[in-house]
Design a protein that fits this description.
It is a single chain. This protein is α+β, with helices and mostly antiparallel strands. It folds into three domains: 116 residues, Orthogonal Bundle (Butyryl-Coa Dehydrogenase, subunit A, domain 1), CATH 1.10.540; 108 residues, Butyryl-CoA Dehydrogenase, subunit A, domain 2; 145 residues, Butyryl-CoA Dehydrogenase, subunit A, domain 3, CATH 1.20.140.10. It is built from twelve helices and ten strands. The strands form three sheets. It has a four-stranded mixed beta sheet with strand order 1-4-5-8. The protein has a four-stranded antiparallel beta sheet with strand order 2-3-7-6, covered by helices on one side. β9 and β10 form a beta hairpin. The longest helix is centred in the middle third of the chain and has 37 residues.
């Protein structure tokens, strides 16, 4: 993927926004356990950054996903993971299916205000017994005339406490698990929908997360995205953007881990020498940076293929897997070089260590990514023939 001057200009705009509107406030937001999401979203909407790859017919910029990737990578330069996560839910998780497959009426009612930053969206797929195993969800939507009655609950829903609508995966029939699901847009103020207590998390503390409960929630059938029974497929397509977004978001954060560690070990002395002068340390830092560049190359290759209209399930899963792996190893290695200071919550490496741990879990755990890759490589274990 070759960046044009238009890409570079977008990159500079986002980097400026992060430095001016996010990073100066991170410490306060992390302590509060939230950030002023509506103010931030409205500012992003005014800049056109919440609809970069969405159609101009609905207020987007009408650009391809490579521009979305540049936006996400620059956004990952924030000094916390929670704020970029909340923003990426809006742009790459709860709106792709709405933008690509919903009716014009739904797009006007929910997509346009989401792009403007006037509405906050959330993606409601995971359940306590069905995280990465999407086919196992239990939430139901029963036919009742021209409506559905939705019952069940969703877990670990980012943006839930402040969301205006949920892009929700439900079972609309008793059929096979991959053909009985539908995606519904459910407004947060619908009677019977209840947001649970905000979850206290290891990391991503400035991002608000909570369970969502549905008790006979009446949803008009025209709030469904696509055909009844197509929800699993539409969610899998939506996951492609989510996983590419997850990989792109990690890049700058990992580089921040490395650069801040270089600064620390350059000044820190042990046994009369700088820590940076130890070959074990500077070789490790060089290898970490090399790994980040490998992830960037893989992510950009996947995005280029996605823009070209190719099925990038394998590449997106590989990028997500690699991002998850590096998000565990690089912050861990860097924290080790910080020693006791790395164990103090106020240090940047400590927050990066906590925040980045989610990458290997959210949007499909590492093990699920491996399963997808193996399946598409044709190397999943099969049934043994008789006598074997």
């Amino acid at each position: 993927m070759i960046l044009s001057e238009q890409h570079r200009e977008l990159q500079r705009t986002v980097e400026h926004f992060v430095e001016q509107e996010i990073n100066p406030h991170v410490e306060a937001w992390e302590k509060a356990g939230s950030f002023p999401i509506r103010d931030i979203f409205r500012q992003l909407g005014d800049l056109g950054l919440l609809g970069i790859s969405k159609s101009s017919d609905y207020g987007g910029l009408g650009l391809d996903f490579s521009y979305e990737t540049v936006f996400l990578e620059a956004l990952g330069g924030a000094h916390c993971g929670g704020v970029p996560l909340a923003i990426s839910v809006q742009t790459a998780m709860c709106t792709p299916a709405l933008a690509n497959f919903a009716s014009d009426d739904l797009r006007r009612q929910f997509l346009i205000p989401a792009i403007r930053g006037e509405m906050v969206g959330a993606i409601a797929v995971s359940e306590s017994g069905a995280g990465s195993d999407v086919a196992a969800i239990k939430t139901t939507a029963k036919n009742d005339g021209g409506d559905y009655l939705v019952n069940g609950n969703k877990m670990w829903i980012t943006n839930a406490p402040c969301a205006d609508f949920f892009c929700t995966l439900v079972n609309t029939s008793e059929g096979k698990a991959h053909k009985n699901k539908s995606l519904l847009i459910i407004p947060a103020k619908t009677p019977g929908l209840r947001i649970g207590k905000k979850l206290e998390k290891l990391g991503m503390r400035s991002s608000e997360t909570a369970p969502v409960f549905f008790d006979n929630v009446r949803v008009p059938k025209h709030f469904r995205i696509g055909d009844e029974g197509s929800g699993f497929l539409l969610q899998m397509l939506q996951f492609q953007e989510e996983r590419l977004a997850g990989a792109a978001l990690t890049l700058k954060g990992l580089e921040n881990c490395i650069s801040s560690t270089i600064e620390y070990v350059r000044e820190r002395h042990a046994f009369t020498a700088r820590l940076l002068d130890n070959q074990t340390v500077h070789f490790a830092l060089a290898e970490m940076q090399s790994e980040v560049e490998c992830l960037r190359a893989l992510t950009w290759r996947a995005v280029e293929a996605y823009v070209a209209g190719e099925d990038v399930t394998t590449l997106a899963s590989m990028a997500k897997l690699k991002a998850g792996r590096l998000s565990r190893t690089i912050p861990d290695q860097c924290l080790q070089f910080w020693g006791g200071m790395g164990y103090i919550e106020e240090t940047s490496i400590n927050r990066a260590y906590r925040d980045s741990r989610l990458t290997a879990i959210g949007g499909g755990a590492d093990e699920v990514m491996l399963g997808i890759i193996c399946k598409l490589m044709g190397i999943l274990p099969g049934k043994r023939k008789s006598g074997e």
